[in-house]
Design goal:
The structure is a homodimer.
Chain A (H helix, E strand, L loop, with lengths): L5 E4 L4 E4 L7 E6 L10 H19 L3 E6 L27 H18 L15 H13 L3 E4 L2 E4 L1 H7 L11 H7 L15 E6 L15 E3 L1 H13 L3 E7 L3 H16 L4 E7 L2 E3 L2 E2 L10 H6 L11 H9 L7 E3 L1 H21 L12 H13 L4 H19 L7 H18 L11 H21 L3 H13 L2 E6 L2 E6 L1
Parallel strand pairs in A: 3-4, 3-9, 9-10, 11-13
Antiparallel strand pairs in A: 1-2, 5-6, 6-7, 7-8, 11-12, 14-15
Helix pairs in contact in A: 3-6, 6-7, 9-10, 10-12, 11-12, 12-13, 14-15
Chain lengths: 488, 488
Amino acid sequence: MNKELKIYNSLTKQKEIFKPLVEGHVGMYVCGPTVYSNVHLGNVRTFISFDVIYRYLKFLGYKVRYVRNITDAGHLEDDTQEDKISKKARLEKLEPMEIVQQYTIDFHKVLDLVNNLPPDIEPTATGHIIEQIETTKDILNKGYAYESNGSIYFDVVKYNNEIDKYGKLSGRNIDEMIANTRELEGQDEKRNPQDFALWKKAKPQHIMRWPSPWGEGFPGWHMECTVMSTKYLGEQFDIHGGGMDLKFPHHECEIAQGKTANGVDPVKYWMHANMLTLNGQKMSKSTGNHLLPNEIFSGNNDKLSKAYSPAVVRFFMLQAHYRNILDLSEDALQAAEKGYKRMMEAIKLLDKLPVSDNSSFDINELITGFYTAMNDDFNTPILIANLFEAVKYINQINDGKATISQADKEKLSKAVKDFTFDVLGLHKELQETGHNQAFDKTIQLLIELRNQARADKNWALSDKIRDELAKFGIILKDGKGGTTYSFK
Amino acid sequence: MNKELKIYNSLTKQKEIFKPLVEGHVGMYVCGPTVYSNVHLGNVRTFISFDVIYRYLKFLGYKVRYVRNITDAGHLEDDTQEDKISKKARLEKLEPMEIVQQYTIDFHKVLDLVNNLPPDIEPTATGHIIEQIETTKDILNKGYAYESNGSIYFDVVKYNNEIDKYGKLSGRNIDEMIANTRELEGQDEKRNPQDFALWKKAKPQHIMRWPSPWGEGFPGWHMECTVMSTKYLGEQFDIHGGGMDLKFPHHECEIAQGKTANGVDPVKYWMHANMLTLNGQKMSKSTGNHLLPNEIFSGNNDKLSKAYSPAVVRFFMLQAHYRNILDLSEDALQAAEKGYKRMMEAIKLLDKLPVSDNSSFDINELITGFYTAMNDDFNTPILIANLFEAVKYINQINDGKATISQADKEKLSKAVKDFTFDVLGLHKELQETGHNQAFDKTIQLLIELRNQARADKNWALSDKIRDELAKFGIILKDGKGGTTYSFK
C-alpha cells in the first residue's frame, strides 16, 4: 500500500509529504467552539473534517494527541449589575458559567450524534488564565508588547520588522493593512490598528475577570490557543486546524505570539476547512438563511421537507473535500440519504457473499484506491467513490454476476469496514428512526392475521400466533375494544 | 398540599424547616468526582440522591443553581520523567489532562444513563487556580495560615482558639485529635498534624504545577470547593452535599477556610448521603468486593447473574433513603426490576382507564402523601411506597374493581407522572434491551406464516403478508436458503 500521506499546508499553499516532528507521534490542535450559543452547522462540518483526519492518522498507526479547546472565557457583560446588589444576591445575577455549561453540553451532544470521537484533551480558556498571564508577561518582557491603560497589546509592526512577516499565513501585507485601515473609535489605546490584545482590562460591567499584574481583566482570544497548544503539544507541533475564517487574524496572531514567546514557528502544517453554505447562500442568522444541526435532525425547520439523520448529514459532509465549499440543500441531502443506505446495505451483504475459486476483479487495486484517496490530503469524496466501486462489486457478486475468492472476500470485508467505520466514522447501523413504528405495525399485522384465524375458527393458527409472540415477550390481551399488546 | 420542606442538617443533627437565604432561590453545591478513574458505584448513588433533591427543589418552584465540581487538579506524578527528555518530546510524556478527559467522559456517560440532570455549573479545579491562590493569600494575610518550605498550611489550632470550633460538623474535638495523633513522617513541615495544606509545593516529578507567590505548586484539595462555591453561590449558600466520607476532614476544612476568609459560616444546610455496600460488605477494589456501574449495566461481572438496566439501578437506589446504608445484591436488584416494571406498566394504563361518576378512593389524600414523603427530608422510599398505592388503585380500576372520576383521573395522572418522572427522575420508557431481538423474531414468525400460506397455495394470504410488510419498509426476499428480509 502507498502510505505516503500528503497534506495541503495553508502556510506554503501546497501539498507536502507529511513528516511528523517526533517519529510515530502526531500533535494536532483544532480551534474549538465559543460556547455562548448553539454550535453552528458550519463548525460541525469543520469538526467532522478534523475528526476524519484524526481517525485516519490513528488508522495509519500514529499515536495522536488531539487537542481541541473550548472558548469559555467571557465577553459577557452584565448591564443590569448595580452597586446596590450585594454579594449576598449572587444567585440572582447572570452567571456566564451557566451559559457555558448549557452550550458545552449541546455541543458535545451534537458531535456525539454525528459520531465524532472526542479529542484527547479538551482544555478551556478559563482553565488556563495563569498560563495566558505568564506568556503575556514573557512577550512584554521581550519588548514585543506594551501596556496601555491596563490592557496589553502585541506590537505587530515591531514583530514584522524584527522577527517575521506578519501576514504570511493569510497572504496579507502589513503595509497595505495599515494603509487601508482608518482609525477606529476606541482603538486609540493601540499604537497601530493591527495590534491585538494579549490581555484586556475589564470594564466595570464585565463579569468574567481575573487579577493580573496589570489589574483586573481577561485574556485576549488569540492567547488561549497559543498557551494551550504549547502546554499540551509543545512549542512546535505538527498540525493546527480550524475553519477558513480563522486564518486571519486568529491564526496569524497565534504564529506571531508563539514565535515571539518561544523563538520558533509553532506549527508545521496549517490546515483549514472550508465553508458550508445553505441553498447557495452564506448562512446567516440575520437573513434567516440558517439551520441548526438539531433542526435538521428533528426536521423542525422551514428549509427541508423532512428530518435527516446525523448519519446522513455526516455522509453528506464527507462527500465533499474539506477544502471545498459545500452547499447544503434538500436535493443534496436526499441524494446523500440514498447513497448512505445503498452503502450500508451492501456492507450488510459482505460477509454473506458466496465465494468462488477466483475473483473476477482486482481486489488489491480496489483497496489501494482507498489509501490513495486518503493519502491525497484526506480526499474523502474520492474514497467514497472508491467505496462505491466496492459496493458495485458486492452487489454483482450477490447477484451471481461476479465472483470473489474466500481470501479476497475477507480482505475486502476488512478494508471496506475499516475505511467506512474507522476512517470515515460512518455510523454502523442505519438509524433506528421509524424502527419502533415498523415493529408496532408488524405486531398489528399479526393481530389482524390472528383475528382472521379466529373468524375462520382456525384455533391452531390463532393460538400459535399468541403463543409464539408470548415467547418473544409480546403479550396479547383481548378486550372490548379489540386486541392490544404489551411487552413482558 | 403541605409544602413545608424539612431537611436533615448534618451540622445541627436534626431536621430543620428549609428556608433559603434568598427567597425563591436555592444555591446548592455538591462535591463531584476525582476524574483519575472510573466513577465509583457509591458515588453514583450520592449523585442520584442529590439529583432527586435538585429535581424536587425545582419542582417546588425554586430557582436552583446547582454547582458540582470536577476534581482534575492533579496528584499524578511522572516517575519516568528524566532531565534528558527535551521539551520537544512533549508528546511522549504522560499528560494528566488526557486521563482527566477520558474519565470525565465516562463519568458524564454513566450519570446520563441513570437519567441524572446535569448541574447548572460544573467547574474544575484547574479552572480556578487563581481563585485558590487568592483565597490562600487572604487567609495567610489574616494570620490563619503559615508558609513552610514552599507550602502553605492552615493553622487549625489558631482557628479553633480564635474563630470557631474545628470539628463541629463531624463532632470531633481538636484536643482529642491532637492527643491521638502521633507525629507522622513527612509532616514535620506542619506545626500540628491537624493542619492541612492550602497550597502544596510541587516536587520535581509532579506534573501539574502552577506558579504562585510561594513558588511552583498546586492547590490543596479542600481549597477548590471553598473558592468554587463562593464564586458561583456566594460567601453563604443554602445546601452543601456530598458523601458521608467527606464530612471529615474535607467539609470540616471547607467550613474553617470559608469562615476565616469571609467571616461567615459558608453553608446553611449540610447534607450527607450514606454508603453503598455490596453483598453486605464494604466495596473495595483490593478485596474484589467491587462493581463498576458499567459492569452492572452490561452484565459483565462475576457478582450478578445478568445485566440490570440503568433504570432499574436508579429505581433500586431510590428505594432506600439517602441517609441510610444501602446494600446491593442480586435479590435486591431483581426485586427492583420487578417493581420498576410493575410501576411503568400501571403508568401506561393510566390515561386509558375507564371513568365513572365517582371515585372509590380519596385521590387528594393519595397525592398529599407524595408531597409529605418528599417534604420529610426527601424520603424517596416512602414516596415510592405511596406511588405503589396509586399503582394498586390503577390496576383495580382497570380490572373494574374500583372507580375514578374524569377529574380525579386527570389529577392522578398528572401527580403520578410528575413524581415518577420529574421528581424521582425515573426513565420514561422501559429499557429497549431485547426489543430488536423481539422485532426480528416477530418478522420471522410472519415469514413462517407466509411460507405455510404458500405451501397451502393460499396466495392471497402470502401476498398480503409480503405487501403489508413492504408498506412498513420491510422487504422480503426469497432465495435459495429461504426468505430473508431487509429494511428499505
